[in-house]
């Protein structure tokens, strides 16, 4: 992100020398990091990215992942990490938020649709679908993105994107908490993109 000095307030000249005191910088709203997705239209996630799509793994879990694009990123960013979360799952999942996708060490600003299946330049972690498989979720790429499947009503999904000043020491199949421990103190900026998927 190019931080623009939009509010520079400096005081007077003393004996011909400019004294810079109390100088302040602010960041315009349009310069902050943002994330968009062509898979979210008018706040609605397109059906192909969840249970009404046509791509599933061997356990019947939807695997066709959402695309997204990151803009206005901090200039010292080395990598991005993402979490796709469903807080509306809390009442129907036994009392916890449902994690659909985690990925880290992303070094580009655009991920195309279905890249959870095809990309090899970033790592992906296990998701909450492993709890439905007795903790035996495969570490194959086909299992890393588990799409939206709200059982009771439309759910609001959040894609949390983090700009980091490091690469994380993670491999495919990493655990959610390990990613957060390593990100601590290294988040330069973050953005949450939201979309609803209907049951």
Structure, explained:
The chain is mostly beta strands. It contains 2 helices and 12 strands, in the order βββββββββαββαβ. The protein has helices at 115-118, 176-183, and strands spanning 13-14, 17-18, 34-36, 40-41, 44-45, 68-71, 79-86, 98-106, 110-111, 123-124, 155-164, 187-197. β1 and β2 (17-18) form a beta hairpin. It is globular, with a radius of gyration of 20 Å. The model is unreliable at 1-25 (pLDDT under 50).
Task: Give the structure's gist in a few sentences.
It is built from 2 helices and 12 strands; from the N terminus they run E-E-E-E-E-E-E-E-E-H-E-E-H-E. With 199 residues, the chain is mostly beta strands. The strands form 4 sheets. Strands 10-8-7-11-12 form a 5-stranded antiparallel sheet, covered by helices on one side.
From the helix content, strand content and strand pairing, which structural class follows? mainly beta
Largest sheet: 5 strands, antiparallel
**What is the averaged pLDDT score?**
84
Number of strands: 12
Low-confidence stretches: 1-25
Distance between the termini: 38 Å
Number of discrete helical segments? 2
Strand order of the largest sheet: 10-8-7-11-12
